[in-house]
């Protein structure tokens, strides 16, 4: 159900160093990093097994302790579209229309909304369009 989880931190460099050390004991390391130049506002890194970031720490999208990011797995791009539409209809604020996010990987198709409590929620499908027919 949950694809990945991100937390906002006060000091990105210190938090990255902390989690690199702690998560290495579980066999996980940094598998992806994004910068403000790439995203427009957020800098962070994702930890997980090779090629698959599941836990993100970063700075720029909210206040530490608030501004949580929760991504839910979707099986199709149509589900991502439906998730976004339903969220907006239920009172969420748009935080990124459905679409490809190739800076994560070529088939990353996601949509974002801010729920009534201020959490950034996302639905994401990792499959290429042709695999969904």
UniProtKB/TrEMBL annotation:
Keywords: Dioxygenase, Oxidoreductase. This is Glyoxalase/bleomycin resistance/extradiol dioxygenase family protein. One of its GO terms (molecular function) is dioxygenase activity. The keyword Cell inner membrane does not apply. PANTHER family: GLYOXALASE FAMILY PROTEIN (AFU_ORTHOLOGUE AFUA_5G14830) (PTHR35006:SF2). Pfam families: Glyoxalase. The keyword Secreted does not apply. Coiled coil: none annotated. Residues 1-126 form the VOC domain. InterPro entries: Glyas_Bleomycin-R_OHBP_Dase (IPR029068), Glyas_Fos-R_dOase_dom (IPR004360), VOC_core (IPR037523).
């Amino acid at each position: 159900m949950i694809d990945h989880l991100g937390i906002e931190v006060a000091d990105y460099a210190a938090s990255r160093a902390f989690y690199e050390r702690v998560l290495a004991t579980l066999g996980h390391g940094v598998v992806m990093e994004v910068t403000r130049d790439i995203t427009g506002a957020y800098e962070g890194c994702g930890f997980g097994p090779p090629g698959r970031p599941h836990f993100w720490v970063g700075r720029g999208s909210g206040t530490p302790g608030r501004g949580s990011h929760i991504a839910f797995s979707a099986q199709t791009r149509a589900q991502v579209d439906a998730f976004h539409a339903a969220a907006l209809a239920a009172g969420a604020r748009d935080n990124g229309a459905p679409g490809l996010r190739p800076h994560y990987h070529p088939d990353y198709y996601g949509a974002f909304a801010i729920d009534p409590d201020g959490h950034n929620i996302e639905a994401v499908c990792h499959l290429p369009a042709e695999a969904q027919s």
